[in-house]
Amino acid sequence: MIVLGIESTAHTFGIAVLRDREVLANITDSFTTAHGGMIPAKVAMHHEEAYLPTLRKALNQAGIALRDVELIAYSDAPGIGHTLRIGAAAAKSLALELGVPLVGVNHCIAHLEVTALTTEAKDPVLLYCSGANTQIIAYDEGKYRIFGETLDVGIGNLLDTFARDLDLGFPGGPKVEKLALLATDEEMRNLISLPYSVKGMDVAFAGLQTNLLHKIKTKEFRTEHLCYSVQEHVFAMLVEVAERALAHVGKKELVLGGGVGCNKRLQEMCSIMCEARGAKFYCPPNQFLVDNAAMIAWTGKIMHERGNIQTTVENATIKPYERTDDVEVTWK
Ligand code: AMP
Ligand code: MG
Q1: Cα(100) to centroid of ligand 2, in Å?
Q2: Which domains does the chain have, with CATH numbers?
Q3: Which residues contact 63 (CB under 8 A, 6 or more apart)?
Q4: Is the CB of 253 under 6 A from ligand 1?
Q5: Tell me: the pLDDT tens digits for 84-124?
Q6: Is there an atom of ligand 1 within 6 Å of 227 CB?
Q7: CA-wise closest residue to 256 among 122, 130, 78
Q8: I need a labelling partner for 198 at 20 to 30 A (CA). Which of 143, 205, 240, 297 fits?
Q9: Residue range 42-56, pLDDT digits in tens
């Protein structure tokens, strides 16, 4: 089956083409800025302009014609209303034009489902670390359950805001990672003490964000030492909660998802923790960690094939606030 996937929950617009388990094309076009962050209406305008070139590129690379597509999958939740609407409108008109079924996909669940396509993991716990989302998710009795999450901002948003306060531009995570490498030393002498906020199974970053802003304003700290220290603190918080989730649900596999998952230090910390407790750590290639449409196409395909799920064009909608555990998983 040939599936066309559309991703538009946040800063990335993506279109992918999947034939069975083979990713024929996975094209993304992301909104970026040199200074400042994301303004929803501007990101939506970016996606609207990106739609046709991205579609053409994806079809070209896949070597198929639009009429070969047999199923359309689009991310319908959760995310920024402005941008979700662009993807949904594109998906609806394509489904209508081609006369093929349409499936709406929860983006967070897609990050987990795609690990079955891109790693050897069978029944993992997902440490999902993206811009707006930070959740520890695992399947249990008919739903993907959230075992821990951020109580305020997402880990990527924290890194992006911190980078914006340093005037590094958006997205900030990769810039923070690069600068942090300049400060790494064996004795951790460059480690600045920062708030470490783990509450039960949840994490919180807002206090840390304010603390960092104060530290930046004093000009008493070197930027690379701050970057290094932020990473050490926030990744330790995430790995601590992920480890507790593994213990709690008795699962033996951890996978990473989300753009922050590209961070080599986070990957290293995850693999050290997994080794210590006899679990396996898997990390999908970067193109499937960041927001992408291949994961939407894959999840839409298994929802349709195994769960007989289909959305009519009339009922196709967006659900900006849908939570991972709102979705009844009928396809497993
Ligand atoms: P997503 O929303 O899953 O596409 O992820 C986007 C987020 O990932 C943004 O907040 C980026 O700053 C962050 N990000 C991307 N690459 C890295 C990296 N190497 N280290 C840390 N954060 C990153
Ligand atoms: Mg994401």
Answers
A1: 26
A2: 2-112+289-326 (3.30.420.40), 123-283 (3.30.420.40)
A3: 24
A4: no
A5: 999 999 999 999 999 999 999 999 999 999 999 999 999 99
A6: no
A7: 130
A8: 143
A9: 999 999 999 999 999
